[in-house]
Design brief:
Layout (H helix, E strand, L loop, with lengths): L17 H4 L5 H17 L10 E5 L1 H12 L5 E5 L18 H6 L20 H8 L3 E5 L9 H17 L6
Parallel strand pairs: 1-2, 2-3
C-alpha cells in the first residue's frame, strides 16, 4: 500500500496555511501522524502480516519514514532514499544549509530554527534516530551528489548508528 502524507503529492495544498490552522504542530509531526495512521489502517486488514510493515521514503519521505519507525515499533523496517542531512552542525558545504532545510527551506520543523547559529546544540541527529530504530532493519541509500546532503556526513551518521546495531547482535540489519 502507498499513501501521501499531508503536504505531499495530491495533498500538497495541505501545507497552505498549515501553521495558521495548527500553530502548535509541525508539518513533519503531521506527516509522522499520517504515517502512523496508515500503519493503523494496514493492521486493520486481516490479510496484512503485522510483522511485515515496512516504510519506504524518498527525500523528505525518507525522513518521515525514519522518524516514524523510531517512534512506532510496529514498523518492521525502513528504506530511506536521499532522506536526510545533518541536523547538528552545518557540514562542510554552506550551500546545503544543515538543519536549515528542515525549518527554513521546507518549513517541516520550524522550531529547529531556534538552533540557527547554534547547530551544534541540536539535541539529536540522524544517527540517534537510526539507533532508536535498532535492531529493526534499515536501508539508507545516500547519493554521492545529493543537492541537500553531504554524502560523507550521511555515511558518518550511519557508521555511528551501526555501533548500536553491532551491540544488539544485528550488525547486518
Amino acid at each position: 500500500q502507498a499513501f501521501e502524507p499531508n503536504g505531499t503529492g495530491s495533498r500538497v495544498l495541505g501545507q497552505k496555511d498549515f501553521y495558521d490552522r495548527y500553530p502548535s504542530w509541525s508539518l513533519m509531526g503531521r506527516m509522522i501522524a499520517d504515517t502512523r495512521q496508515a500503519v493503523d489502517a494496514l493492521l486493520a486488514c486481516e490479510q496484512v502480516d503485522p510483522k511485515q510493515i515496512y516504510l519506504v521514503g524518498y527525500a523528505n519521505g525518507g525522513s518521515v519514514a525514519l522518524l516514524t519507525a523510531a517512534q512506532d515499533t510496529r514498523v518492521t523496517g525502513v528504506a530511506c532514499i536521499a532522506g536526510f542531512s545533518l541536523l547538528r552542525g552545518k557540514g562542510d558545504d554552506p550551500a546545503l544549509g544543515g538543519n536549515q532545510q528542515y525549518w527554513r527551506n521546507f518549513g517541516l520543523m520550524p522550531r529547529m530554527g531556534l538552533f540557527a547559529g547554534r547547530e551544534d546544540q541540536v539535541p539529536l541527529d540522524w544517527q540517534d534516530v537510526l539507533a532508536a530504530i535498532a535492531p529493526r532493519r534499515v536501508l539508507v541509500v545516500a547519493p554521492q551528489h545529493d543537492q541537500y546532503a553531504e554524502h560523507e556526513q550521511v555515511i558518518k551518521q550511519i557508521e555511528q548508528a551501526a555501533h548500536i546495531y553491532s551491540r544488539l547482535g544485528t550488525a547486518n540489519a
